[in-house]
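Same chain as my last thread, 460 residues:
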Amino acid sequence: MLVSAVGTPVDARPPPQPVCAVCSDRIVEAGAEEGLAIDVRDSSLTVRIDQSGTGHWTARVDLAGSGVDVLRDDASLRDRIVNRVYERGDVAVTKPQSLTTSMSENTLVVEYEVPGMAHESAGDVYVVDFFYWNDGDSRWFYLAADSMTMYGPPGTVVSHAPADATPDDHAVTWVESDQQYDPLNVRSHVVFAPNTGIGSSVATAFGIGVDVAHEKAGDLVAVGAPLALLAAVVALLRRFGHRLAGLPRSQLLAIVLGPLVAVGLTAATVETLVGISGPVTEQVGDFLFYLIYAVAATGAGPVFLLGGPLVVGQILLARRVINTNTGTAGFAEMEAVTRQLLLPAATVLSGQWLLFPLAAAGAAGYDTVYGLVSLLLPALYFIPLAVTRRWGTRLHLPFTAGIVLAPIPVVVAFAPHTGMSLVIESFPFLYVPWALIVAGIGTLAYASGLRLVASENRGT
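reply #2:
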């Protein structure tokens, strides 16, 4: 099963979580369950990060209603109501430690600790990643409080803050006047550094990059299936590829397209029969949906629509290059073809992997563009692979690696930790349709590359 194995086609995102749980309507609901009528008039949250990375949270909630006097006088009831807010879950902090409550006139004061909010990175900077990603779950918030202010460890200054925050020398403040969801934004790291110098700026960028890369690394499980598939295709081309050049184009297309169509039809059929039990007309509709989804939502679509024409253009260019140099002798001919055909492809391959660390570090906006380009590039390495293998040069090794390892930059770039992803979730089978399309286009390109070299040899 394709879709059931990787998740439903529609991404049903859970509701956002309140950062300041006791500042939200949940405190009103918890009070109502105890028979108290209270309402929130104003609220603020202060978070102070210490040198161990622990956050010390202080929420101040100005309350109104007939139940305020009861809360002030009954500490046991007050504690019970506040704890109930956190025990229900779906809040930014589900297990506050050392929680205490008090009342100052009509203001409820809730203090607690949250360990592991920040970690110290190179250059003595403190990276607060609590609002970025946590225990495998994306972080989606609304503040609930009217304002939140975060302070770093003593002696530090703000060196990075989300775009929608207001940084000061020693603190970062969010004001939620419009109750905006996701107020900390996708790029929600907060970093405190010893100073605002160049060294601290570099350490800040490095600290965020390492943190993003660490989270993205968890998605590498998705690499296994497409990598194995592409490795098998490259191995089969090495063993039997020479036979492809002699096949008529109709047979070659049948060999390539037949398995692709069979896999798509089988996956859609199985998913429809297993997941849907309704009228035949509905099952037909679901079948078509699953079939289209398997391509459109996995990156296979861009490779088919864009990668295919690019490979056709590459084939035409290669034919022109080789035909232009036909008749020259030996190494001179090989050097000309290498210079005009293989070196540009090798340069693209090198550039793709040299830029990979930036994608792994989640460089703002860059990783998604990098991922889109990386979807298309593997299909372009098959013609150079065929040419270099036929020549028997070591140049075939980087192209082999570029194809086999192609899932790594794609998966890392599209890991959902950066908030934008071509696919809905990063599970292994979501990349298999993409790898199948790459393999199909690549096989046709490989056969064309062998024909080009064969025609070159006949012309000398």
